[in-house]
Write a structure and sequence with these properties.
Rossmann fold, 636 residues, mainly alpha
Amino acid sequence: MSAEGHAPPRTSADIGRRRHILGLLALVLAVVFSSAMRIHFALADVNFDEESADGMLKSDPGLIYYVTERILQSGGLPPDDFRADPRIEHPGEVDIPAMFTVGQEFFAAWTYRIFGGEMPLHVFCTWLFGIFASLTAVGVYGLAWELTGRVKLAALAALFFAVLPFNYRTIGMILIREEFSFPLFALHAWLLARAVRTRTTWSFLGAGLALVLALASWHAMGMIVTIEVGALAAWFARTGENPLAVPKAWIVPALAVLACLFVPVLRSKLFLFSIPVMAALAMLAAALLDRRGAWTHGRKVLVAAGAFAALFAVSLVARRWISGGADDYGHVYELILAKLAHGGRLPEDRTELSFGARLIWQGPFATSTWRDFRIGLGLANAFLAASVLAAIPGWVRGRGDAAFLQLSLFALISTVAAWMVRRTLILLGFAVPVLAAALFHHSRRPRLGVALLTLATAFQAVDLANRTRGVANGWYLPANMRPGLDPRAGVRELRRLVRWVGQNVPKDAAIMGDFIASTSILAHSGHPIVLQPKYETASSRARIEDFYMTFFTGTFESFLGLLERYDSRYLLVDAQVLWSFRYVGGVPLQQHSPTPGTPAYAFLRRDPIVPGFELLFRSPPELEADGVSYRLYRVE
């Protein structure tokens, strides 16, 4: 019988190649879907103006936009006053690369110069970071494949990631740090798992470089890396398996140390003396001293603990010598301790919290509720619980799939972090799809697991579609949106304000106001401002404390002295935003109106006339009644 006309039998290599192609197609689908979601809902929002960004940028995005434009105006290079900017914190000068993580700004400026064309910068950035943030799916796919070796599970993990609602928290913000930094962390996690398997120099270099870029692009990444190193150190303490004893693994902490010495923001924040760096160096010291691998479990851990204690002692001395004891991240530690002490509930008595803890305990740093977990993660909560429970026996015995057990602990710690700080739910959005894939890979009925993950992905896709249909982006809405108010009123009025300022206020005149609206003025009119929203520097928090405490609890004379001290004759009053910060400024939550005799009492009344100040700009009374109220004063 002739074989002519019959296809040759498929080999295992052919089948494997086809599976990888299908897996990559699924990954592309996840990235394209996620990108389309981010870009479509941002551009389709009623407040998004594709012609002008005026009124759309405020708080962090306004500051990032300002720095990006400055880099563009300098031809993609740092501007001449990059190390001494006079506009961000008037009357002082700001060393931008030492105070802020500016990786995103340079990336945006360079790509815009190449691909931007005639497209407005804010529209280009919406497209750029809508796509870039979606590349987190690449890290999810790669890490899931490393943990399971199965293309189907890796593809499902990437697709499941793409349909979790909380992964879209930043839609429409235009420029926000995590959209650039977190995909780099996801890439680092994948490449690190790959490096442990392949043990090649290039894999460890890739993992280390991705980590450095992530750290240099987002202040909060330090906490995420602390959780990562904590999970690795816990496994080392339980089993004696030192992750830095793997050949060439030293490359990753070595690159981190070099970054701490040469990247301005990491150097200024003394990240070399941070807990994750010191813990990694302690484990590396134990690995180097035990080159033959002859030490007992207890001796390895004891040496690493001793090295960490020594480094910690050195760090205390070094911090006091370098910064005089001031800690730029002190407010974060204060927040964590306060949330643990108060069970995540904001205490009625504001004196129970330091100013730093009160300042950061709001917005994305608020305590999560069960509703946040339920809506943001959906069915991922069930996979999270199942994975953590499945990991308990392995941790008790000190044996099992190390990568799965370490990632389970990472997810468990991230759950606590996500409860304390709402924005860190993004960690679970990344980790849980990978955990689900690994969990079903180890199950006795993997086909059932694949079916469950497929159904969960389909359900979450439908749920995501229902939740996003016709929803206005809360980022653009007024602080206290009233029923019947035009959702475009807030952006329109802020746009009118910044344009009025640009046309009527002298260019060198500094404007004092809350740090939400101030950066909108900085970005669009270029006027110097006094307060900015990136308060990861102790000196920045000090001037914010000076403003809010004087405004809400000081005298009128002390407030005039404050304006004089910061060389500002112009005061911007956003009544709704300022009153929302009353607790930060020392006013009890149960107090429903400003204290008589304070500056807040004078400036937050319906009557806009304040003795000693000239009213230059005022929102229409009908808008003020609906909660949209901007007033600009000048000291007479």
